[in-house]
Amino acid sequence: FTLLLQPAVSVGNVGQLAIDLVISTLDMTKVGYFYTDCLVPMVGNNPYATAEENSTELSINAEVYSLPSKKLVVLQIRSPFIKNKYRPFCEALLSWVKSSKCARVVLLSSSHAYQRDDEQLLGTPLRYLLTPDLEKAVGGQVKELNWKEMEKVASYPGVSDTDKVLHIPGGGITKLLFTESCSEGIQMAVLLKFCSEGDNIPDAFVLVNYLNEWLQLIKSEVSTVRSKWKIPSSWRLLFGSGLPPALF
Amino acid sequence: MATFFGEVVVAPSRAGLDEEEEAREETPEDREIRREIEKKREVDVLWSGGAQQPLVCSRFVVAIGRNAAAFLSSFILDSVCWEVVGVVKLWNEWCKTSSTTNVLPTDSFCLFYRLISDPTVLLCQCSCYVAEDQQFQWLEKVFGSMQKKGLQVTILSTCPVADYKTQESTLTLVSPFLKALKTKEFQEQVCCPLLEQPNIVRDLPAA
């Protein structure tokens, strides 16, 4: 069976950064793209280029990569949703998941760190969610990993006996995709990290290592966390061009 | 997010999704308003009587933005060799296109010209801003009117030097300078270096 790995466009773009690391490290091959009117258009040269020769392949906002040896398909999303278009995108995505017979979907996401409650401020900033169908399949495996499930919150905070609902602030389409997958019987896992906007590269590393604990995409060693994942060449100059020397 | 002075502000998130928008269910009134706005924001492509669709086109040059449009006006277009064959009408918060074909350089417009001596050569001057939600429509409606076999498309646009990401400071860069992006299918020689990562192109030129 094939596993689809994809990001949600969420706070700090952590999911997308983590997916960049996966595609870059596993040297995945591009196999297709989504021709969609739901995302802001963008285009550039190959973001995973390693040499002059492979640097001139065009890249757009929603592309699919694959690694048949690991039965892995990865979708990367590179621009924000156009107003009112995130719902049609989710519908199109889930119907593609069903028609392409991807057995499982793993969604990498993030949520606003400042919205955590007192308990969430302590301990790990990583959370997971499993749809009921996936819970049946891998619930035991995940339990072994000692992961923390994303807590539900009171729908009216402060009022004591209200229903508890899932709330993922800053998570973009995460909640919508997850709730839709639950009702459509899709095996989906959400892995997310609490974070804030800023330099989110460290958050991406934490999230991708979290993912690796379960999927074992690369060999995990006890040594330094950063060295195993390959940073793509497009991560250069993330905060702008060089500074003019006359500034100092 | 807390600022230096201790006040809490809501920073615009790169997630791009407005939380309130997501949580609220759409009422029938909301839907009606949304439909009205969508209708107002529709992109209309009008071709003149002489232009038979699908347009047979061998070369299509699209100039997006005031600078690129001005380039075409200054160096290529004239009333002797070129005739107007089409216009795009659209409205958004930033501009409304003028419906006349006798435009001033300061107007917002989107016009199509055809080379009289070779009617398969088309030019588009698009000085109006095409909003995010209109870009795909523009693309589909314009290219939808064309026969695309053997078609070569050239897109001209400009970006501020300050947006260009490079190792050195942009202050010391010799500008203006040209960069290009091309598809695999474009086999001819490109007249300038290719755009290096991490630089990207967005909006209508990207679409």
How would you describe the overall organization of this protein?
The complex is a heterodimer of chains A (248) and B (207). Chain A is an alpha/beta fold and 248 residues long. Chain A has a single domain (3-247), classed as Rossmann fold (3-Layer(aba) Sandwich). Chain A has 5 helices and 11 strands. Chain A starts with a strand and ends in a 33-residue tail after the last helix. Chain B has helices at residues 19-23, 28-40, 66-75, 132-144, 203-206, and strands at 44-47, 55-56, 59-64, 82-89, 110-115, 118-126, 146-147, 152-157, 200-202. In chain B, the strands form 2 sheets. Chain B has a 6-stranded mixed β-sheet, sandwiched between helices. In chain B, strand 5 and strand 6 (118-126) form a beta hairpin. Chain B is an alpha/beta fold and 207 residues long. Helices cover 22% and strands 22% of the residues of chain B. Chains A and B meet through strand 3 of A and helix 1, helix 4, strand 9 and helix 5 of B.
